[in-house]
Amino acid sequence: xxxxxxxxxxxxxxxxxxxxxxxxxxxxxxxxxxxxxxxxxxxxxxxxxxxxxxxxxxxxxxxxxxxxxxxxxxxxxxxxxxxxxxxxxxxxxxxxxxxxxxxxxxxxxxxxxxxxxxxxxxxxxxxxxxxxxxxxxxxxxxxxxxxxxxxxxxxxxxxxxxxxxxxxxxxxxxxxxxxxxxxxxxxxxxxxxxxxxxxxxxxxxxxxxxxxxxxxxxxxxxxxxxxxxxxxxxxxxxxxxxxxxxxxxxxxxxxxxxxxxxxxxxxxxxxxxxxxxxxxxxxxxxxxxxxxxxxxxxxxxxxxxxxxxxxxxxxxxxxxxxxxxxxxx
Length: 329
Known about the structure:
By secondary structure, this protein is mainly alpha-helical.
């Protein structure tokens, strides 16, 4: 696709304010799950709300582009949105509970599972179920109409009507076999993981229901019943009393996954906007851009200030690698 052929983007889906707001929210969530784990549940809820808003907008635009001639959703915009949602999903894998967040049957964890299952189902429809071909066909139809109007008005357009959307670095096209096969494998694999987690949750609910029927309840543990090995995990100066809490648990591998996912998502989104010459998505002076921008940036600022103000960076913690205890500082 020639670089001189810009196409109108969708600022309501990935405008500069929305993107920066999401990027800063991902960073805030990552920092909280490492340094302020008592607040991670709240940040996860905020994160899932933002992801749900982006996903709902993507679904709405997909439906409207199939029925409304005034709305065209480009294939690259779908892939771009999936990157935005992927970054939000993997920015909070670490923390005090990590991937076992669903084991405790919290509402936020179940909401995340439902959200990611719906997202994986959409990705399967797009890559496997013919969604990509449908979006491309609609895009070509609208571009032909626009090209005919330009010629009728005496204006010649040099852009190719059948141009291919760029989906990866190196200007890899969305129709390339490698991109399509990767999209199919990733979407099917993601859906399989979500289905497996649903089965895991149902199994836990079944075990708890069986225990409740038998009258088996686990009594709350006390300091005297706590094993000596677990007492060593308590933060210094808090070995007794109501203020007692365990040292923060940091899984290095999950931290690396979260950081890598954030970097990959941000660079992929920004590259795709530039490579596909998407216009009209970098304006900041709009209500739909200012609100998420302020929410994200102020949240990040508050998180960073609180971490340094309470000296959480130097707080004693336990380091884990691949689920195995490494050392306590």
